[in-house]
Specification:
Shape: elongated
Strand order of the largest sheet: 3-2-1-4-5-6
Distance between the termini: 115 Å
Number of strands: 19
Radius of gyration: 42 Å
Number of helices: 13
């Protein structure tokens, strides 16, 4: 007997043992008023129901974790992007290339940002807005066309990818604005030394890294001299000195349109030295900076002497010069020789001739200046000016013979024209160039790190000894006249430099 037969016999036995009482129960009930609705037997419990609930809970947990992860990804700094022209700023960027924050490092950068709030903006949109503002405010132009892009990310591949992407983006903006621009780009790794330099000079870590690499290749350059310069000016210096960089990639060429040519700088130096080009044995011309001013550094050998000149790269004026060897040596504003025909006598000899004619010793002067006066590019004579007591002296000295061509003297009030009571005898000391520079910057409300092309020069005007101070902040040029004894502001002007 198998299991099926056993099951059938048991069912039959149960039915016989327990007769169906349904008919008897119905008979005891009253007449049936409605249809009897049979109940369906209960369904069997599904074994997978708990599993489904567990799976649903897992989905909720995973979804929450994914949401938290996505939120963190959108609000965590993944990269730091730095832009430097002269405006210097950095942007913290998420992995989704959304800008989380923007930090300006100097006043020029604050000008660029204006009232723009770039937080939450797509990185490409932010870069377009910033480049557009630089173009509009004149920081990027045909005269200054270079920008530095620096990317910091722990993933080297990601840094390189973002660096290339930003370079392409900026080049597209340049093309749209019809600007033949130059983009320098690099990846950087932040360090304590770079951070300290960036904070000290008010620049980005990226610009600090660029300058550090440049001076590592040329020990004659200094961080202090390069930091105030624009990226365009730094690029011109590195290009003229043929400095090769392994970490900085460059597209385009830095503009030289704001400056005279190297040929013109050479001619200015040769003319000032009274040397013909045919007599020059060796010559080297490079871009350099002098107190924030771009100059051509011209070095050459002629007649057994070595000449060094700094020529103002914008105007062609002689900023500084020296000569060693040959028939004499000199420094300052004129060339030197022994006085033989065809060669300048030199600044020292011209000054001595003027002082001797006036009967004044150099120690009795409170102001003394000598330079070569030019007319239509030709050297005319030495101009010598000095102040002794309350008398101002002006001389024109022959370049070759030392003869006095013209002289004037004018006696002013007891103070020598200045209002300082301490200068009555001319014995009170002047405040100095550093104090004059500080006074001008303070009056303008500008920090020295924000200013560029700072020039300070002692001068005489209407019998008064003063310092002329000039500097630039962005496109704005500031000009000051500072009392040489009191530090008082005599004149202050500012204008937009075209």
């Amino acid at each position: 007997m198998d299991e099926r037969e056993l099951e059938q016999r048991l069912r039959t036995a149960v039915e016989h043992a327990a007769p169906d009482p349904l008919d008897r129960i119905l008979a005891s009930c009253g007449p049936q008023r409605a249809e009897v609705i049979p109940f369906s037997p209960p369904r069997k419990k599904r074994r997978w129901a708990p599993l489904a609930a567990a799976a649903a809970l897992a989905l909720v947990i995973c979804g929450g974790a994914f949401g938290i992860s996505s939120w963190r990804g959108a609000n965590t700094v993944d990269s730091v992007v730095m832009l430097d022209v002269n405006p210097s700023l950095s942007m913290e960027v998420s992995a989704q290339e959304r800008v989380l924050s923007v930090t300006p490092f100097n006043q020029d950068a604050e000008t660029i940002l204006g009232d723009m709030d770039l937080t939450g903006t797509d990185l490409d949109v932010a870069v377009n807005a910033l480049i557009g503002s630089m173009l509009q405010n004149g920081y990027l132009s045909d005269l200054q066309n270079a920008i530095l892009v620096s990317v910091e990310n722990q993933d080297a591949a990601r840094s390189a990818q973002l660096q290339q992407h930003l370079t392409d983006t900026i080049n597209s903006v340049f093309q749209g604005g019809s600007l033949d621009g130059a983009v320098l780009s690099q990846t950087v790794t932040e360090s304590a030394d770079l951070n300290a330099l960036a904070q000290q000079y008010g620049i980005s870590v990226g610009k600090a890294a660029l300058i550090q690499e440049v001076i590592a290749q040329d020990s004659t350059l200094t961080f202090e001299a390069l930091a105030p310069l624009s990226v365009n000016e730094i690029a011109l210096i590195t290009e003229s000195r043929h400095l090769a960089s392994q970490s900085v990639t460059q597209t385009g060429t830095a503009s030289t349109k704001a400056y005279i040519t190297a040929e013109e700088a050479k001619n200015a130096a040769l003319t000032h030295a009274g040397v013909s080009e045919s007599s020059v044995a060796q010559m080297e011309i490079e871009f350099d900076s002098e107190d924030g001013l771009m100059v051509y550094e011209v070095e050459f050998y002629a007649g057994g002497a070595e000449y060094d000149y700094d020529i103002n790269a914008r105007t062609g004026e002689v900023v500084k010069f020296s000569r060693e060897g040959g028939s004499g040596s000199a420094t300052g504003g004129g060339a030197t020789s022994s006085g033989s025909s065809g060669t300048y006598i030199g600044e020292a000899a011209a000054t001595a001739a003027a002082l001797a004619d006036a009967g004044i010793s150099e120690g009795d002067t409170t102001y003394l200046r000598c330079w070569v006066e030019h007319d239509d590019g030709r050297a005319e004579c030495y101009e010598v000016e000095f102040l002794a007591g309350s008398t101002e002296y002006q001389y024109e000295i022959d370049l070759y013979t030392g003869a006095i061509l013209q002289s004037e003297r004018e006696t002013h009030g007891a103070s020598g024209g200045n209002t300082s009571s301490g200068n009555a005898s001319g014995s009170s000391s002047m405040i100095g160039e550093a104090a004059a520079r500080s006074a001008a910057l303070a009056h303008a409300g500008v920090s020295e790190s924000s200013a560029s092309r700072i020039q300070v020069e002692l001068d005489r005007d209407d019998g008064q000894t003063l310092y002329e101070v000039e500097f630039h902040v962005g496109r704005t040029e500031y000009s000051y006249e500072i009392d040489a004894y009191t530090g008082a502001i005599l004149k202050a002007e500012q204008e937009i430099d075209d």
